[in-house]
Recover the amino acids of this structure.
């Protein structure tokens, strides 16, 4: 029997890369549906820990594709001091416009409400109903013109490094990001109108949502569907060791989970949560994690799913999640990785194990980093 082989000198390097990328398991939760102008709100508690990126972001599917104008809006928790960074990532190539917000609040031990207001002439960032940043002019136009088909809602948690996020030490694992609820209000004629609210209080993945299953921006972890759980009325995203995935325990309660922020507070509470619209194929979702996830200047983008599914494909294997079609350019072709590792005929167990590890490593090595991996959308 004959085998199509790759140079044996590459085996140690490929196996090392595979081990590095899979040493830590991260998580990403996102909505299949895209939404245009409106108010995007989430009540959450970010994950603590130096070097840990914990985020809530909006991402335009397909931003990771070469030559495409990138659009991404981020709320990202960074550093051991748990500070907040906001960032409208946009451009072709994508450019980072991050800024750190000075807040008198503990973002990692308390729940807070984070809001994006996206209108034709401005983009505002609010924390607990208080505006902390507003972008107009060029930034607003960049999204009005280039994201007219809408953006997806994403949440993720992943490990960074000294260039973005801090100094990550796996010894601090496991860590969690908690999401109490998510809400969207449409915008028209100068007013926001409540559309839907997802309480995340069921035992499984809600309709219209999907789970990431790609490498994170810095390629230091792989998003695992099992690291997203729904328990105690809260959505839980975990960052764990590969050998200890999942979440066991009781998440901290959100004392203010009953009300929505902003003008729609009254109508928001008690409304039946919507499904978020018909699920669109996440294949075009955020690339390897938005600009912030790995492609932007000044940090990895938190958002973005990986190209085929980026900070955007549906996860394979999560409770109630279905695997999205692989349509991203960088997944349409693996650049010869399959041919390099796959035997021409049947092979024994040892060959299969060796070739399989090499194939995973080769694909990870070739995959462009976006923010947050993602389908490359967190963006750094």
């Amino acid at each position: 029997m004959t085998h199509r082989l790759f140079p044996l000198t590459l085996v140690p390097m490929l196996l090392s890369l595979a081990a590095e990328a899979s040493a830590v398991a991260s998580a990403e939760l996102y909505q299949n549906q895209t939404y245009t102008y409106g108010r995007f709100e989430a009540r959450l508690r970010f994950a603590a820990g130096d070097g840990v990126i914990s985020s809530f972001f909006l991402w335009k599917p397909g931003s990771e594709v070469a030559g495409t104008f990138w659009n991404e809006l981020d709320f990202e928790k960074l550093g051991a001091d748990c500070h907040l960074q906001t960032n409208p990532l946009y451009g072709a190539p994508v450019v980072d416009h991050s800024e750190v917000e000075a807040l008198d609040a503990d973002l990692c031990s308390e729940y807070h409400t984070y809001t994006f207001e996206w209108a034709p002439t401005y983009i505002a960032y609010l924390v607990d109903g208080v505006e902390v940043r507003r972008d107009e002019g060029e930034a607003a136009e960049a999204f009005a013109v280039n994201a007219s088909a809408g953006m997806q809602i994403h949440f993720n948690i992943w490990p960074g490094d000294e260039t973005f996020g801090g100094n990550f030490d796996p010894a601090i694992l496991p860590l969690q990001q908690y999401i109490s609820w998510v809400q969207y209000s449409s915008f028209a004629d100068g007013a926001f109108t409540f559309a839907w609210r997802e309480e995340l209080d069921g035992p499984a993945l809600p309709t219209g949502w999907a789970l990431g299953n790609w490498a994170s921006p810095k390629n230091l972890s792989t998003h695992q569907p099992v690291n997203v759980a729904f328990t105690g009325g809260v959505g839980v995203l975990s960052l764990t060791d590969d050998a200890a995935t999942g979440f066991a325990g009781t998440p901290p309660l959100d004392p203010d989970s009953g009300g929505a922020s902003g003008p729609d507070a009254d109508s928001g509470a008690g409304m039946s949560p919507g499904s978020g619209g018909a699920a669109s194929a996440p294949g075009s979702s955020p690339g390897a994690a938005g600009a912030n996830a790995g492609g932007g200047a000044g940090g990895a983008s938190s958002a973005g799913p990986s190209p085929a599914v980026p900070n955007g494909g549906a996860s394979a294997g999560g409770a109630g999640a279905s695997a999205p079609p692989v349509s991203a350019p960088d997944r349409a072709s693996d650049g010869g990785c399959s041919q390099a590792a796959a035997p021409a005929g049947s092979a024994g167990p040892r060959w299969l194990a060796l070739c399989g590890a090499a194939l995973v490593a080769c694909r990870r090595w070739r995959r462009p980093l976006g923010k947050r991996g993602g389908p490359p959308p967190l963006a750094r």
Q: What stands out?
A: Confidence is low (pLDDT under 50) at residues 1-21, 259-299, 306-380. The chain has seven helices and 18 strands. Helices lie at 11-22, 138-146, 265-268, 291-295, 329-332, 337-341, 349-366.
